[in-house]
Amino acid sequence: MTFFESLIALLLMAILLLQVARRTWIPYPTMLAAAGVIVALIPGSPVIRLDGHTALALFIAPVLVDAAFDFPLAAIRSLWRPLLALAVGAVLMTTGVVAWIGWAFAGLPIAAAITLGAIVAPPDAAAATTVLRSAKLPRRTVEVLTGESLLNDATALLLFSAALAVQSHGGIDGGVALRLGLAVPGGIALGIACGWVHRYVVPYTRGTLGGNLLEFVNTFLVWMIADRLGLSAVLCVVAMAMFLANSPIVRASARSRIQSFAVWGGVVFLLNVLAFLLMGMQVREIVGDMPPERLQEALKFAGLVVAGVVVTRMAWVMLYNRLAQRFAVIRGPLKAPSLAQSIVVGWCGMRGLVTMATAFALPTDFPHRDMILLAAFGVVLATLVVQGLTLTPLIRLLKLHDGGAEEREMAAARKSLADVALEAIADAKGTVAEETRRQLEIDRDALVDAAACKAFEERQRLKRAAIAAQRDRLFALRDEEKIGEDAYEVLEEELDWRELAVGPEDIRTIEEG
Prior knowledge:
mainly alpha
């Protein structure tokens, strides 16, 4: 099979597995890990090699930008203590333990062993959050896990770049030390500068196909500039994305936001599929070229690395839990995490795209590259399958849930939005203003009164039925050639906005929660 044929086959498989994941508690990255194993077992699969810089830019940059746009700065300010413990402390501890395993049991050079540790250290939140959305965990727990995923990538990739530079250079001298010292502040400064420039370009391309393409071009361009200058490309794109996400000038319209979310969601999913495909192909080549004795040694080593990664994270999280329970300065104003929360956070250590992308980025002449790649793939496979399949049962066993807090938060927020809408038109006069106020009052009352909520839901149901009939009629008008394609697209978009405005079928009152 050619690479293109393999990609199409795996995409079809991934789409099928995604449908299974949507209807079960199995996260889709676990499904993709299984697909990667299948690819590794298919005879005749092509082997595709990517340049290390290309692999990091292709797989890491869009994922970081996507995560940075979605994560609020306020959460970092309020949760900086647990985020620091996980995104820095846990990554450093895991890197150190894995580096010791690589040095002691596989004879890796120190820099190469640290490189392996940095590759497998950062958990991927994609698998965890897929489960956590359905499990309804407390909001703080979910925010800590998603924030960790964004920040620990930066920590791990900084370690990876530093260890790779030391290994390639043969040691540390003044030039290497200066470059590493400037990488962090220089990357952040460059990212903010690029965001400041880009925010003046966005208004001219917003809501267009070119605007969506520019988002990706800008992401890769900023990454490449930072990489060429020897700065931290990771921190550069994260700083740029967070600057843009919190800048009122680039606040997107509803239409552009819907388009952008759909495009970025599809691209991130495609990158995950492509990464598992390429990893499966490389593993097949490595296993095929290894003598049986070497393969047995590599598999034992991979098992040790998997055990080191899982045990270290769990031990570190439990240690932080005990310290936070005892010392208020460690937890700050936050409530001390419960034992159940700590167990779940410790078990949410699934590795994924970042681990595979950094493994791809290793030069072909890197010491023990075959063993490092197998170990990385082993960590991804073991954590996604074992932890991914047991996370939901563990949450149920610990009876850890948010008690309906999310529904109550949404209901209270909806009421607050309705109140401010009424205040905005309180001084307007005339029949139209009265009708508008009355409609807003009806919508607000549905959030605090059960009887009004039933009436509201009935009105929404009738609106949805009317829109469905309009949509059927619009299809018929196009099929009968009574309207052209341009008019059809405009009217279809108007119906889409109306349907979105009607909202979801389930509306809960604040009292019901």
